[in-house]
């Protein structure tokens, strides 16, 4: 299946290669570089490329290309999903996925890749299993290892691999037993010029952090499971139980994991927390433009909107921005033509406003399209769909764990057309 | 030399640190020292600073490898480890470290696991190059293969099989055979992987390897399943016979196999199923819904249709596969979801495919690359099945931050989804895209508009006008694209030429982009005969400005002159000569050349000779129109989700998906003597329990019973309740599906469009109601019911409960289908000149496609209605009755045949005739209304205008009228839908049907059965509710049954044809239960039929509405008595 993997940085250097079958020369990447050249933006490189003898499937993440080479028919999503899983694992192990981090830990990364695939077929991709085989580096451990000559490689067979619950490692022990669940909802929306909602929906995810001793069997139930329309689960969730009782029943993996993602049924009207009044205009003459953005609260359910930012991808011809913000700061990046207005907390009494003039390249034609505004925001302690966890129970173990649920609403792909 | 010394120094520091156990701070100091050393000598390495940071620097330095060799040969483990880490670093960088082979291979037997692993990594990488030396290590692995620790055995096999040295093939073969019989499933899994490796090394071993695969396929471990199927796919994908005996096991294990294995197994099973089962799609109807249309005209034909449906009974194994893959749609792994989606697409009955839609749309939230692949697949699917994705149209709206290929794919899908009903929304959306800064995307949008215009004739004019306006755009790509599209549209619509071309001529003065000017001139020349007055005038103007034009425009001026000269030489002879003279002395040689050529061609002279005669044919040859069609049109020749599909070329190793066999191969090949319960199972209380019931369901004897049952189901009531209900429900599902399609094609579908389009105008007034309605999920809870039922009954009567499961599942499926499928069908019905057309036309003034970038923003009115229409759409999906207990759900009907009634005869209606029927759909406008569809036909010889509904009687009658039909051409018919609140009485609704000139009083009298909505409930709930409705709320009578009506299937059919009720699954096969509720007041209506001997039966109806009960009883009695 997956023949080889090349990690390529932003400027096009191959800084790591791994072959699971016979070695394939680096020159195969030239086809990819060609496509990359053509695409201008790295996001525009087609994920699947054909070369005379191989097929190249790549993903672009964190400014890195993960380029895999395959020789025969394979579902492309299989490879893409795996490559993302590699990136996730690196992220999980080292806290970030970047060229520097991978280079610093090249041996560990190489060992991980070795374990993840056998002959190009995924072998162990569960982070719990991998962590048993190859321990993630911690400062403490590296000190201990240097003192004792110990290693990062586990010396036992990961038990999870063999049991029917491959996602959980055996013999977990904690002094403080705790289980935290974050219900995070993102609002995807497109608003049009006049502020009318063209499209709005809510996507949610439940991130869990479970540190429980032994083999706990948890059930999580909701006050209003009917809100959930379409969901995907971590493999630990018993699907039948959900189908019949609308209860999440599972033996959790150890540590952080995504329990489920869901989509709130589209019949429900999405309450947008903010409204945006904007006026961006480019004058026909005089190569300048005007910008005026105001943001106000709409349906915030009595909570404060935080972390509010507005990002505007300006047309190429906009040279500079001379603006004043009543709240927060703005920056205009001349190279990328991105205007970012960092507002922070939204004060309902005094609505934040950003206005001023834009200067355009002299002689260039007036931009045809006004740039869209991308909004990010956060509302703590609120799930905008109204979803509520009703209770969490634990079976199978005697102790009493500490439990907690947190709600958070964020803007997902929240775009205002202008 | 210097560098070497520093290296040494660093090493010393490192060693001293090791021996003295220096503190962490000291270590930092040591590193700092090394770094200082590095700075002074850039070629050296920071050896002590740790392998990770170090390897990059010394890799070019050959001597460093010598150094590594020394480290490897030292006695200190830590040094060796350090060296190996650096070597692996080299490998990772792609640097050559092959000369270290002898030094490394010595460490293969080392006890340190980490070191050993690194050595393995090295061996696998370089063994191929140093085969002789590699052989030294083989004995180590052979020993390790006997190790008591399964982990060591597995890793030894892994490495041994990864060493690509042909000489050890026999050793590998032996090792694989042994490991395949290993106790540990993990080792067996590894051996499955090794099979593929050996096969790629030496394909001659195929036969022996197939034996091993055969053995491993029998393995019951979830751990092994995925890997062995992978090996099967790689080595012998054509040996489908190996799968037979393992088919059911694989299906049952599937949920518990790891994600990657699931993908492989599902795609293999897709291929398998296509060879082993017969098509669940009707003959030749796969993607051709038009075929079905033929059936729907009369009742007699409908019966024939059902007969045909009866002949198809889904193989239980086929059903098993579909059932067991369905939960995987909820997987977090996008590849799994995609593979289930393609399985449903290629294997499921058409109405079941829709269940994958939501999950596919969910994947669009994932990474960019995932979106790319999923959108490609959706694009292919949406060409054939618009209905699947139409409700999710908004998920394909483009954001300015999407990358270009995502945008283009979304555009493709939106274009595919466009139909009469949603075209205005889509065009409005396109309007935004056209102005995009991403010019490639803007150009693609114009193409898309062009495609919409050709596909949907109603909007051709609007699109054309919009595109003409785009000609004044500043961007050349946009202009060029618009011209191409306009050209195409003009070629398809010859009558409209002059208007557009005139318009373009008018715009001409304002257009400055040379490309656009040139394009207009070309069009002018091409169609000069259609604008005989304007073309010469344009030429006159151009003659004046010739010298100031761009080269590209000049060329077209010359062309235009030449063409006009040929067609209209009287008026343009002098002008042409003038222009040719100007061109002759132009600075550009291209233009001089062209001028010279044209002159020779068109002006007859003694030199020009024969060519001159053909000038007309050369210059005015008809030019083929560029084809505007989807790039995904024939992508479906590849299996969805494959690499080949994504690339649109056959990838190497692509396995063709075979066509369905005409006759199903022997089913018994899949029978297995003993099926043991899966032992892999951990002691998980909840999960294990459910598992058990699953297994019982597929135990062997069960299987046979089922097959028997399905054979006998048509003729008689089988004694085994479980099997008969299973097969019965399945065939019933088929028939209901058929009839559903029947009705949906004849009327409902067109009314679907009707409803949507009228909703747009209605939306203003309906707005409040719509938003207040609390929508509710239907299909999921219904499925949940049946599942809980299964839980309750599982251990006691597993078979019956699971059959209940299957039947109710099929019901919900078909219901889903009816919601989303009908719009797709409607698109195909081109002959229904329904109202949307009229409406779109009338809206033209508002300008749907306001593409003029000089004009201000479009009016705000338009987007609003778009939003509302979508909320209406979503209302179609969920309809709720707030006073219902959660266990009882309103469902869409399981269909009985639809009877058509006459509303107005064409004699009395002066040419206007009207027929109506009850589509048995929940009414869109108000839940208390009954939906009625009226087919209006104009059988007169003149067109009828302003057809609408006039006064009603009684005046209080709550009636939802259809929108006024502006004009109905002779011989045309239109289907409109109405909603009538009958207030649970069979009293006729009288109203007037008016045309511009006449008024006709008509009345609709509903049969009592049409005043119900079907609901599903469990048997327990039914009994409970029945218990509450005794005494005067109960009406019962013993009735005589026609002998033909004694099978459960026939009973359901008869009852459903009379009343719009839902079937309640029953465990007693002599009692049939149906449930519904009245539309207006929502009172429960429970019908139960208890079979007695000698074709008599006790019919009981429990409801508060006793009048309705007696009427229903009468109707049912009549229906059941007749054959």
UniProtKB/TrEMBL annotation, chain A:
Keywords: Cytoplasmic vesicle, Golgi apparatus, Membrane, Protein transport, Transport
SUPFAM superfamilies cross-referenced by the UniProt entry: Second domain of Mu2 adaptin subunit (ap50) of ap2 adaptor, SNARE-like
Location of the protein in the cell: Golgi apparatus; Cytoplasmic vesicle membrane
Residues annotated as domain MHD: 176-417
Membrane topology per record: Peripheral membrane protein
GO biological process: intracellular protein transport; vesicle-mediated transport
InterPro entries reported in the protein's UniProt record: Adaptor_comp_med_subunit, AP2_Mu_C_sf, AP_mu_sigma_su, Clathrin_mu, Clathrin_mu_CS, Longin-like_dom_sf, MHD
PROSITE patterns named among the record's database cross-references: CLAT_ADAPTOR_M_1 (PS00990), CLAT_ADAPTOR_M_2 (PS00991), MHD (PS51072)
GO CC annotation terms, alphabetical: clathrin adaptor complex; cytoplasmic vesicle membrane; Golgi apparatus
Pfam family, one: Clat_adaptor_s
Function as written in the Swiss-Prot or TrEMBL entry: Part of the AP-3 complex, an adaptor-related complex which is not clathrin-associated. The complex is associated with the Golgi region as well as more peripheral structures. It facilitates the budding of vesicles from the Golgi membrane and may be directly involved in trafficking to lysosomes.
Family: Belongs to the adaptor complexes medium subunit family.
Listed name of the protein: AP-3 complex subunit mu-1
Organism classification: Eukaryota, Metazoa, Chordata, Craniata, Vertebrata
